[in-house]
Design brief:
The complex is a heterodimer of chains A (116) and B (112). Chain A is 0% helix and 47% strand. Chain A contains no helices and eleven strands. In chain A, β4 and β5 form a beta hairpin. Chain B has 112 residues and is an all-beta fold. In chain B, 0% of the residues lie in helices and 57% in strands. Chain B contains no helices and eleven strands. In chain B, β6 and β7 form a beta hairpin. Classes of the chains: A mainly beta (116), B mainly beta (112). At the A-B interface, β5 of A face β5 and β10 of B.
């Protein structure tokens, strides 16, 4: 079956613009995660959805960042008033959340965001 | 809170030699530990995971890792390096199976 897909693969924008990044999780996966990977760093957690609701958004750096998952499947990460420091690869992962078990996260290829 | 330290941002080994990538963790609760590999322009792929069962964990592509609680370590090894092993490797930790906390990564170069 298809893995996690992310669109676009690359996004170049200008400082101050608004961007949306899309994630299509593996079909049937109830949990969805967003991470951000800056150059030379490991991925950093941003937000986790269980179904339609954000169960943990403690990693969102500020109120310019927002994410939604209205139907419990596709998710969109939204960044307002982009800054050069937002340039990074944004990774999405999904898992089949089963209580009491570790649920492997499957990662997409990422969206490379460049803010000029 | 959890954290991971990967010693050595770059490691070079000769083809056929032992690969050893170091990872030390900090966790206030029994952790789950992982090694991921990232090839250029690709997503993260799970190599292996420790989830409180056997302390010696075998993964894909001949890699294995040993959980040592006394040393708070989870080092990744492979007996004989292959050219295709060249990639970036990330160690990660989680407490409850939700968000992963990653190390800064180790870039592995294989010398022919």
């Amino acid at each position: 079956g298809a893995g996690v897909s992310q669109t676009p693969s690359n996004k170049v924008t200008e400082k101050g613009k608004y961007v949306e990044l899309r994630c299509d999780p593996i079909s049937g996966h109830t949990a969805l995660y967003w991470y951000r990977q800056s150059l030379g760093q490991g991925p950093e957690f941003l937000i986790y959805f269980q179904g339609t609701g954000a169960a943990d958004d403690s990693g969102l750096p500020n109120d310019r960042f927002f994410a939604v998952r209205p139907e419990g499947s596709v998710s969109t990460l939204k960044i307002q008033r982009t800054e050069r420091g937002d340039s990074a690869v944004y990774l999405c992962a999904s898992s089949l959340r089963v209580a009491g078990y570790y649920n492997e996260q499957f990662f997409g290829p990422g969206t490379r965001l460049t803010v000029l | 809170a959890q954290s991971v330290t990967q010693l050595g941002s770059h490691v070079s080994v000769s083809e056929g030699a032992l690969v050893l990538l170091r990872c030390n963790y900090s966790s206030s609760v029994p952790p789950y530990l992982f090694w991921y590999v990232q090839y250029p322009n690709q997503g993260l792929q799970l190599l292996l995971k420790y989830t409180s069962a056997a302390t010696l964990v075998k993964g894909i592509n001949g890699f294995e890792a040993e959980f040592k609680k006394s040393e708070t370590s989870f080092h990744l090894t492979k007996p004989s390096a292959h050219m295709s092993d060249a990639a970036e490797y990330f160690c990660a930790v989680t407490a409850g199976g939700e968000k992963l906390t990653f190390g800064t990564g180790t870039r592995l170069t294989i010398i022919p």
